[in-house]
Amino acid sequence: MAYQPPPLIHRKRLLTWGLTAAVLIVMPLIFKQSFALSMMSQMGIAIIFALSYNMLLGQTGMLSFGHAVYFGLGAFFSVHALNAVGAGNFHWPVTLLPLIGGVAGLFFGVIFGYVTTKHSGTPFAMISLGIAEMVAACSLMFPTFFGGEGGISTDRVVGNAVMGITFGPSIQVYYLIAGWCFVCMVAMYALTQTPLGRMANAVRDNAERARFVGYNPTHVRYMMLMLSSFFAGIAGALAAINYELVTAENVGVVASGNVLLMSFIGGIGHFFGPIIGAMLVTFIQSALSNYTLAWLLYFGLFFLVMILFAPGGIASLITLHKPAWEVAQVRKLVPSYIVAGLAGAVLLVGVISLIEMIYQVETKAEQSGTEMSLFGIGFDAATVMPWVVSVCILFVGALLLWMASRYVRSSWTQVAAVINARRSA
Amino acid sequence: MEFFLVTLLNSLSYGLLLFMLSSGLTLIFSMMGVLNFAHASFYMLGAYFAFQTSQAIGFWPALVVAPIAVAALGAITERYGLRTVHKYGHVAELLFTFGLAYIIEEIVHLIWGRAPVEYKIPAVLDFSAFSIFSTQYPAYRVFMMLVSVGMLIALYFALTRTRIGLIIQASLTHPDMVESLGHNVPRVFMTVFAGGAALAGLAGVIGGNAFVTEPGMAASVGTIVFVVVVFGGMGSLAGAFVASLVIGAVQTFSVGFDYSLLNLFALLGIETSADSAWYDLWKVTISQAGPVLPYILMVLMLIFRPKGLMGTREG
Q1: Closest to A297 (Cβ–Cβ): which among B90, B107, B315?
Q2: What angle do CA B9, B13, B19 make, to 5 degrees?
Q3: Is A405 a member of any domain?
């Protein structure tokens, strides 16, 4: 029987997208602070970028270390376009500026993709890294285009206001980003349902078989990379509008690593994974960096723990519970999760206090001494007692977590028995 | 001539240092199929450990202690990290080393701060060995070359003449057969990983004070080492050796040339001014373009000879 693709528009799907659109519209009405608004704008940009990245990693199995090249170049081209509009040399509505970024991203995707997509696996990863380094090094060589150290700044309020929309207030920029984010999400989801999207999955799983079916894996990879760089360019243009500044950091290797972390933490195996990852990572980055200077370390540890224990990301942790949910057994897991959560919290307290104390003694002692306070308790990190206590908490936490993990496992065994019984019934 | 000779010697010592890093990386890659992103972080840790030990007990003990400490860390990484994620496939392994590199850099920030540390050349070696025309050539550079060449010879004999070396070579190509013959292949993997880390650590000990010991050193050397491995051909030690010397030379020589295409145009009698088309591109000097050259070489190599210089396989 010939393959019948599921219909693109049906009730359940319309409901999901309708809800997504509603959330995008309603969010700024609930969270009105400017801090929340700018974070949501950042999230919207990150979602497009992470989803475009997952077209490569999750759907085609291409681990790229240089995706920020397309994001950053898209941003640079749109910032120059915006400046040209501002100077009156060029006419283009700001609302459609992301298209310019997208086309710029696509253009470089066509050029670099031709070289990189001839390979897959580790060689592809390394070449993408090499190209990212090349572009980053070039960005300091051509100050007229890349703006040198200071970057290129712009003013997004150009031209005549259409229906009062000037993109001056950040709420208007939020809705611009939200609109583009929604369109891109729908487009990228639709792509996964096309023959190209399906062949990308086949190339990821087994390139040789894909070749036998009559598709050229190189072409599939090239197509996916071009499309993905188009969306990355759109995200870059939105970032240019949002921040009104584009610097060489935007094309840098750190930015490329960041999008990889986002997608992986969210879960590359599911379409909605990178959306979760983009939101969570953006939130962590803006919230945690206010509290501690060592936040990058916590972030890195979080990433490592995810790889070691949940390589499918948060999305797979969620979908893991689907069978249990269907037989209404999730409530049996809840007590063990609460116990594990508490044990994990104890371990976390131990880890955090050790890291913060090392940080106080090694780095901050010269300016502010070794007196510090943590979790509302003031103490001197130069004395022995806090270290002993922290190490004790750490070990107790580890022991508790080990015991709790056995509890979780036994609860799961019970639930699995119920699921199997229902299935065979 | 003077410039040429001095730069040649510098590029040689730098290239040999690159080979100490890339040899470990390429061995680990050909054995496990994992590109170790944290390899340059081991180089950085070697430098920092050496800085700490040389402050406590001096440079010479540090030359032994630091690589051993780094090797122990490498062994732990393989045993408890990579082996755990191995079942999830190569992407997870690659990402694990990527995350590890990230964390090591943050830990270095945490302990030693963001500024470079004062890891100095030992006083015994701080004199000029000989002079080339009017330039005094530092003895430490000579010492670096001696250590690297010594390591190179030791590595060669260890791999080709010792029992463990032969088992390693066999495990590269026929791991299943080696396992059936009763050898513990996972332990061989751990040994290779630790050995590669030790080499990187040693490179850090001798390179950290010749260049600069700072948290950014892993990132700046790391990508160059990747370029070396790709350029030389993945999994080929001989290729890595040639590529290390070539890339080392390209990087060292390009710094010294202040010519741009404008000079060429002037020679050819073409008039240029700041208003000419693509003026930005023409005015870039070779020394400014230096950082990009290794990557351009790599991309060209991948277009025309994807296997690399002496590689036998394509990934």
Answers
A1: B107
A2: 140
A3: yes
